[in-house]
């Protein structure tokens, strides 16, 4: 009814504007729709006051309050004018103390009306840190009229929100770790990293870092566990590659972020450094794999400076120059990671020095406490004396006038190689011209001593002389053509009917036509005839009748006919024919119509030995290279499957390089300079100049594989491209075998593996190669103290073969004296453990002892955590074990039979070492240090 009257009154009031009436009607309609809700709300408020009153017929009842913020302090809600005598008890969720509470108080207005006040007390501000529920139950005991009691329950929801930042347990975490550390190792076994978010909801925490993985190969993540209240989460720090050493401290920030809206974050600092008491010394590494020196034309060499990588040098590093040609070279260790190599020949006989072009050596760097060592190749090149021992020009021309004056340019010998000891001699053949040589350094002039000789040579148009240079075993020569003034010769010579140049050189590009290479019309009286061509196997040119010139068809400088040429070229022999020789020009041209037959005559191609003639000319067409050939990978097929050790395997089996690719280009010079590139791959990278593929991270698990797409690009990375796809699969220990080969055998290990490949359907892959001391006390005099050790694996029909099956197949098909041993991983484990148990008097350094001892004592499921704390504690007991004697290490390459004094005899603390050694374990896997130290122990026994 109220709604009807109201609706009827409005049109009478606002009849002046129809549009305004319509707006008012809409407002009235909305009001009428909201009115019932308002009335219901009023009823609820009245009901709430009734519920909290003692007048309620129920003895226990509940009230739901509006959600409150966790930041609220003080009163939550006041219920006015309640009929309650007293509040007897209050509890929160049956907890020991309350976070919200209730009290009964009189109204300030009349001091008679009672109000029930619900409030947040002093403990409420710590609720989020101590509790997880998103609402609080406040149970209130009420005393009513006539001593009756009722219970009132308030349900107080808490408003959700992201109130708190995650907080790390520490602002800085420092990890002091033993090295080497292997891929897949979680550093948090040494120390937990945790962060707590006190929010009641949206408090799941993720851990990240902006640079840990990119710079240091350490992945930051979240562990799959949290505390019971779900507020504290734990991070993990997983090593993604092998760290053989940590020369410098690693430091980065770890960031904890919750999943609230908006998210909140905080960060802490991670510091990782090597434990000097639980780490192997750093293996020295050279900055370059190849160093080049140069002996100049003055027989001097600038000292060659070789450098170790920063942080890999220590006072225990020793350098050794290895080669049979080191007698003339001196090595000076500068004791700062730099080595200076000087050349000081004991025999200054230059003739002997010139007999060779280069010296190849290796420089070895080895820490005396390590079995491993690094090598770099050294190539000393001698200046190209032979290639540069020549005159600047092949032919020099002069002229003797009718008055007997000699005019000619200065003859110049290559100044780059000129030596004062060079002897010059003029060979005048049958013409005994009185000519003297004037020599000033590398410049030579001719002087005619007697001009009257000209009158006796009026019928000779020219004189051909040869100038020779000799020094030690080197020889060079040039031709000198001296023309003589002729006043009484016939008209043919006067008209110039003789060739201008005996030898003509022209450069032509391959793979394209060349028109007008040579005009065969010499003058109005003479023309050239093509007599012969070299090489004679194929015709490269034809006669262009319209222009009467030689044209060239496209020539491939990589054609097989040039494969034995130092410099691909074509030589054409031409004869100048003139009318006075009873041969017309037309006849000359017709004889050149089709050049398919040449004269049968000996053909000389050395321009220095071509005789001078007025009617013969040799045209040298030097074929210049263009980039028309793509690189080709050598000895490897596309989609080849290669093995690589899976993650968490012993470090000694990991190769420095997966494979060394070699691509060649048939082109020359810049066109043949190859750069290698590889599409982005998480696990492997490539050296762009050498083609060596190396591991970036060691993250491939057993059975996992990855594909590598490699490009070989010529013209120094700007030219033609050849692609190769390789597939890398991670194999476990059971697929690798250790091959031992005598070093003195003439075949290399690569050649031996190729011998294995001759077995049907078997492909052997060389994983890693090194040479180690022979484990015998008295090696035969015919051998040295080293043998090759090579880790190999094999495939059959693109399937990997277990090492035990490989050994069976190879031993059945190959019998060779040079193969000392072939062992599977299992056999190496067995022999290694047996040798450890039988050598109680031998000592190893403390790092191995810690691992072996602790594995026996702490073999429970918590072994990893306990191992770290025990190692830290045990360092004080076992760190007196001396390092392996440098005397033992230096004995590696010797062949004498002298007895080596045991290193333990010179140390008073050997008993402590033996105490630690008595706690050996039967490990099922070979560790990096085990192999290194056991080999050194056998060496000293």
Automatic annotation (TrEMBL):
GO terms for molecular function: calcium ion binding. It is a single-pass membrane protein. The keyword Membrane applies. Keywords: Calcium, Glycoprotein, Membrane, Repeat, Transmembrane, Transmembrane helix. It is found in: Membrane. One of its GO terms (biological process) is homophilic cell adhesion via plasma membrane adhesion molecules. The chain crosses the membrane at residues 846-870. InterPro entries: Cadherin-like_dom (IPR002126), Cadherin-like_sf (IPR015919), Cadherin_CS (IPR020894), Protocadherin/Cadherin-CA (IPR050174). One of its GO terms (cellular component) is plasma membrane. Residues 169-286 form the Cadherin domain. Gene3D superfamilies: Cadherins. Its main location: membrane. CDD domains: Cadherin_repeat (cd11304). PANTHER family: CADHERIN 96CB, ISOFORM D-RELATED, CADHERIN-87A. This is Cadherin domain-containing protein. It comes from Glossina pallidipes (Tsetse fly).
